[in-house]
Design goal:
Chain lengths: 153, 153
């Protein structure tokens, strides 16, 4: 049996061509925080540093993955959509990079799952960041997701 | 001589691997608004509709392209960086799609070029959207860019 994180990586690569083009890897999932990593070469821009679209895509996928993996751990089958997000580009990234995502301050999985059980639909805010080698964020993303319980066929 | 828009397309495809993976085309540039188009297949997600990362990347590149082409038309050599952006995902996109970008309301190229001439650096806000076939936006992006005049070597 692959771990849930390994299964997620396989699905992302199989079903999202751009994740494959980015050469995405799931690096770590600890039940609260998900880290995705990519090499620089396929994610470079015209200036020789990381392409903004790759930074944002990786942070969005890491955030989506946190919601998706948390749902799977509880055996819930939902569609998870990103609704909106805000990204800040703070510094150029000149090497391979990773994005780490977790719940935003003030959010809890308990409230999220309680609302989902009661209404079949719930929202969740997440934060993600691409750290520089000194740990300071090169880019950060705040996003809101909605999960909708899939109707049984 | 290729048109400035054709030259931009060639550069994007040559220098940004992800633009190539997305199969990006420059569709139109009228001096104020830039439209970039992609087929759905390389930009699909796990649900069979457009991947959020592709929507955001295309809108960001279209916005960047407006600034870049406006600068080139005036013979200015600048580095153009995106600083921050906010994206709203409103409806899924089930076919090939395009992103159109233009200056945000209240912005003017005149002010931008005046500031650039005076200070060697200027900021500009843009809007971009991915229209559905009925013209309503499936996704929209507001972003801020900074242009910095390149020092002559």
């Amino acid at each position: 049996m692959p771990t849930p994180a390994a299964a997620l990586e396989r699905e992302l690569l199989a079903r999202i061509p751009l994740a494959r083009a980015m050469d995405l890897q799931v690096q770590n999932w600890d039940g609260a925080s998900l880290t995705l990593a990519v090499p620089l070469a396929p994610n470079i821009n015209d200036k020789g540093c990381a392409f903004g679209g790759s930074l944002t895509s990786l942070m969005t996928l890491a955030s989506w993955g946190v919601v998706e993996l948390a749902l799977r751990e509880r055996g819930l089958d939902c569609d998870v959509y990103v609704q909106d997000s805000t990204v800040r580009y703070r510094a150029p990234v000149w090497g391979d990079f990773s994005a780490q995502a977790q719940l935003a301050a003030g959010e809890s999985f308990e409230d999220f799952f309680a609302t989902l059980a009661a209404r079949g639909k719930a929202r969740l805010s997440l934060n993600a960041q691409v750290p520089l080698t000194d740990g300071s964020p090169a880019a950060s993303l705040s996003s809101r997701f909605v999960a909708i319980v899939r109707a049984a066929d």
